[in-house]
Amino acid sequence: MGGRCFVIYPELLEVGELLPPDSALDGENRDRAGWRARLDAMQMRLHPAEAASASSRLRFPLSSIAFDVLAWKGEQVNKLPLGKRRARSSE
C-alpha cells in the first residue's frame, strides 16, 4: 500500500509526525464513531472514489491506538522489557 496509505488515511501521517525520527509503534486503527473496530467503515475509504474524497474522512473518521513501542530513535526496543520501552517513549 505504501504512500497510498497516507492518501486514504492521512490521520496516520499525523500520528507519524508526532514520533521522533526512526521510531515505530504497534497498534491499530479504529473507526472513531466508537471503540469497537468497524471494518466496513474503514474499508469504505479504500474505494477509489472515496479515497480521493475529503468528505470520506468526515463520514468515516479514523483514530489510532498505540499498544507498544517497537523502535525508538533508531534503536530496536521491542525485545526490551515493557517498563524499559515505556521509559524510552516518555523521554
Features:
alpha+beta, D-amino Acid Aminotransferase, Chain A, domain 1, three-stranded antiparallel beta sheet, 6 helices, 42% helix
Bulk shape: elongated
Gap between N and C termini: 32 Å
Proportion of helical residues: 40-55%
Task: Provide mean pLDDT, rounded.
Answer: 75
Q: Your description of this structure?
A:
The chain is of the alpha+beta class and 91 residues long. The protein has a single domain, classed as D-amino Acid Aminotransferase, Chain A, domain 1. It is 42% helix and 23% strand. A 3-stranded antiparallel sheet has the order 1-2-3. The longest helix is centred in the N-terminal third of the chain and has 9 residues, at 10-18. The radius of gyration is 15 Å and the shape is elongated. The mean pLDDT is 75.
Would you kindly provide a brief summary of this structure?
42% of the residues lie in helices and 23% in strands.
